[in-house]
Write a structure and sequence with these properties.
globular, binds magnesium ion, alpha/beta, about 35% helix, binds guanosine-5'-triphosphate, 7 strands
Length: about 200
């Protein structure tokens, strides 16, 4: 029994805010720290492992990448918080992410991707604050859930929820590896686009 996947097609990659395409379609952005699994999540919900490039090394995605679904775009952002890149590059990515999240008129939702094993960072809370400040709906997704035992998942969701004042049930456990959470995420996206 296959879970329905979104049909996604790579559209474009943008390295500078002034090159952003015209905001013609609603956009849902994936945000999270470097190496957390944003691109893997996109591939998982798109049912295609080659859609977005992923890597063991943090800092794989360096541009804003647009993927077209039927009537909306999924947007894969560079990760933040990666200490081992030069300060200037980090600042550049920061400007890109901030400019996009704060200014993009077509942004209708944010998927905040978090590592199920980690307490959310200050930067995670800043990202959440930017979305919240604009009234953009967001979903907290706890990825790499395959790395924890079943009994460790609930306390981990509680820790993540506390950082954003959410109930543990509002944090979605996800795994790009096993497909956990994929249908729920696709459902959230679908509701947002239809509303
Ligand atoms: N076990 C497991 N590994 C995962 C999962 N999701 C991602 N990974 C691994 O985590 C690493 C980083 O994944 P990416 O999808 O490239 O992460 P990213 O957030 O896009 O990283 P940047 O583009 O650098 O910001 C890769 O080695 C993935 O295989 C998951 O759900 N489970
Ligand atoms: Mg990436």
């Amino acid at each position: 029994m296959g879970v329905k996947t979104l049909s996604l097609v790579f559209e474009r990659s943008v390295g500078r805010l002034r090159d952003l395409p015209k905001p013609d379609l609603p956009e849902i952005a994936l945000l999270g720290r470097s190496n957390v699994g944003k691109s893997s999540l996109l591939n998982a919900i798109g049912g295609n492992r080659r859609l977005a490039r992923t890597s063991r090394e943090p800092g794989r995605t360096r541009t804003i990448n647009f993927y077209r679904a039927d009537r909306f775009l999924l947007v894969d952002l560079p990760g933040y918080g990666y200490a081992a890149v030069p300060e200037e590059v980090r600042r550049e990515w920061g400007r890109l992410i901030e400019g996009y999240l704060q200014g993009r008129a077509s942004l209708i939702g944010g998927v905040l991707v978090l590592d199920v094993r980690r307490t959310p960072s200050e930067l995670d809370r800043i990202m959440h604050g930017w979305l919240d400040g604009r009234g953009v709906p967001f979903l907290a997704v706890a990825t790499k859930s395959d790395k924890l035992s079943r009994s460790a998942i609930v306390p981990a969701l509680r820790t993540i929820g506390e950082a954003f004042r959410l109930h543990p049930e509002q944090v979605l456990p996800f795994s790009a590896k096993t497909g956990t959470g994929r249908a729920e995420l696709a459902g959230w996206v679908g509701n947002l686009v239809r509303s």
